[in-house]
Amino acid sequence: MKMEGTPQNLQTLAASLQQTLSANITERRAAESYLESVEGSANYSILLLQLVSKEDIDITIRISAAITFKNFVRRNWRVVEDVANKINDADRNVVKDQIIELMLRMPEQLQRQLSDSISIIGKEDFPHKWPKLLEQMKMKLESDDINAISGILRTGHSLFKRYRHEFKSQELWVEIKMVLDTLAEPLTKLFEKTAHLAQVKRQEPVPNVLSIKACYDALVLMSKVFYSLNYQDLPEYFEDNMKAWMTNFLTLVHDDVPLLHTKDTEEAGTLERLKSQICDNVALYAQKYDEEFGPFLPDFVTAIWNLLITTGSQVKYDLLVSNAIQFLASVADREHYKSLFESPEILSSICEKVIVPNMEFRASDEELFEFNPEEYIRRDIEGSDIDTRRRAACDLVRSLCKFFEAPVTQIFSNYVTAMLQLYASNPVNNWKSKDAAIYLVTSLASKSKTQKHGTTEVRELVNIIDFFNAHIAADLKSDKVDEFPVLKADAIKYVMAFRQIIPAEVLAAAIPCLINLLKGESTVVHTYAAHALERLFTVKLANGQPAIPVESVKPHIEPLLVNLFAAIELSGSEENEYVMKAIMRSLVLMKAEVGPYLQVIVGKLTEKLLLVSKNPSKPHFNHYLFEALSLSVRAGCQADAANVSIFEMALFPPFQDILSADIAEFIPYVFQIMSLMLEMHSDCPESYMALFPHLLMPVLWEKLGNVPPLVRLIQAYIEKGAAAIIKQGKVLGLLGVFQKLISSKANDHQGFYLMQSLLEHMETTALTEHIHKIFLLLFQRLAHSKTTKFVKGLLVFFSLFAVKHGADALVRMIEEIQAKMFGMVVEKLYIPEVQKVSGHIERKICAVGITKILTECPAVLEPPLHGYWIPLLQALVHLFELPEDDSLPDDEHFIEVEDTPGYQTAYSQLAFAGKHETDPFRGAVPDAKIFLAQGLKKICTTHPKLIESIKTGMDPKVALCLQGYLHTANITLG
Question: Which end of the chain is less enclosed by CB atoms within 10 A, N or C?
Answer without folding.
Answer: N
